[in-house]
């Protein structure tokens, strides 16, 4: 029996700040379902993205929000995003969203959706914990960047892409502290957990489905591999 493949999908890939990309959603659905029909199974972990940050920013302008409050608000945004994606896959998807990544769900469905769990980390960490729970050796992280860079390329024109690096090198870039709504290439808490587990994480630009397919196939792709 095939194991579940874990894909962590950034919320802004599913629901961009500029509005839904219907053609992309159709193509993403087709890609996953085509592979499901060949026997593959997936756990799709959906992030909060811009939706999450919009709620957090708005609430913070009205009342004082602590970090735990902000995290819970973000978690609820991930749940709604995951519910949306679940409906896109309809009968292929398990009817419940995974809320606890440390527990297996009993399902005959080939697609399972997951969202945020606890304050103090992002859905990146949930994806890593799901890999541990389901015995997966790797996680594919599909976001709005095509590589991990030496610095934020939006702020530093000299930032260079890193096709491959170790978890020690990755953690030296992102640090060790989590901040609610932060836009890290990967959650520092998740990076620490992944390093302990000896997990491989592949970073791909989520909107480029040909690259995502190559990462799933285990062949060379344009992106970053961390192990």
Automatic annotation (TrEMBL):
Any one annotated GO CC term: cytoplasm
Entry keyword ATP-binding: yes
Record localization: Cytoplasm
Gene Ontology molecular function terms on file: ATP binding; UMP kinase activity
Organism: Candidatus Magasanikbacteria bacterium RIFOXYD1_FULL_40_23
Ranges where the Aspartate/glutamate/uridylate kinase domain occurs: 4-201
Upper classification of the organism: Bacteria, Candidatus Magasanikiibacteriota
Entry similarity comment: Belongs to the UMP kinase family.
EC number(s) per entry: 2.7.4.22
Name of protein: Uridylate kinase
Any Pfam family the entry gives: AA_kinase
